[in-house]
Design goal:
Blueprint lengths: L10 H49 L3 E11 L2 E6 L4 E5 L14 E5 L5 E4 L6 H6 L16 H16 L1 H7 L8
Antiparallel strand pairs: 1-2, 1-4, 2-3, 4-5
Helix pairs in contact: 3-4
Length: 178
């Protein structure tokens, strides 16, 4: 009877282990629910991406720019382009009709001339092509030996903008540029 060990019941350790296992179980259930929700949402995301791809395909890359002259009905308008007559065109379903108003710039599909988008008024594509992002860092002093040409540039470009009164005193119209 000397070899008999006393009964040991580590209640505190077992209780801590049980609580830890409960937390792990709760975490795994939460993770499983999250994955199930993600799988339910994924077909919608794929569908939305497919719709976006379809819209981009409809818009196509070759575009023309026109000016909206008049809205005829919910799906049709009259648009003028820079090259040629006015067109009676359709307005595609994904175009925001609230932004359409006479005089606004619109993007037209190159082949069927339907309206595929609206250009914001602050972006005129004809002006943005000619826009200079950074002014030149060179000065007239950097150019040597061209004093007569520099003087002509100043008289033709700078002075009409900075001193138009000089031209008015002489009685001639100031040049508008080069």
């Amino acid at each position: 009877a000397a070899n008999k060990l006393p009964d040991v019941a580590p209640v505190a350790k077992c209780r801590l282990r049980f609580l830890r296992m409960e937390r792990v179980k709760d975490y795994l259930l939460l993770e499983q629910e999250f994955i199930t929700n993600q799988e339910a949402v994924k077909p919608n995301e794929d569908k939305n991406q497919a719709e976006r791809d379809r819209i981009d395909e409809l818009r196509g890359s070759p575009m023309m720019i026109g000016t909206l002259e008049e809205i005829i009905d919910e799906n049709h308008a009259i648009v003028s382009t820079g090259m040629g007559p006015d067109y009676y065109v359709s307005i595609l379903s994904f175009v925001d009709r609230d932004l359409l108003e006479p005089g606004c710039s619109v993007m037209l599909h190159n082949k069927n001339h339907s309206i595929v988008g609206i250009l914001s008024d602050d972006v005129d594509p004809m002006v943005s092509v000619m826009k200079v992002d950074k002014g030149p860092t060179e000065a007239y002093a950097d150019v040597g030996g061209l004093e007569p040409q520099i003087q002509e540039i100043k008289e033709a470009v700078e002075y009409p903008l900075t001193h138009p009164e000089l031209y008015e005193e002489i009685g001639i119209r100031a040049p508008k540029g080069v």
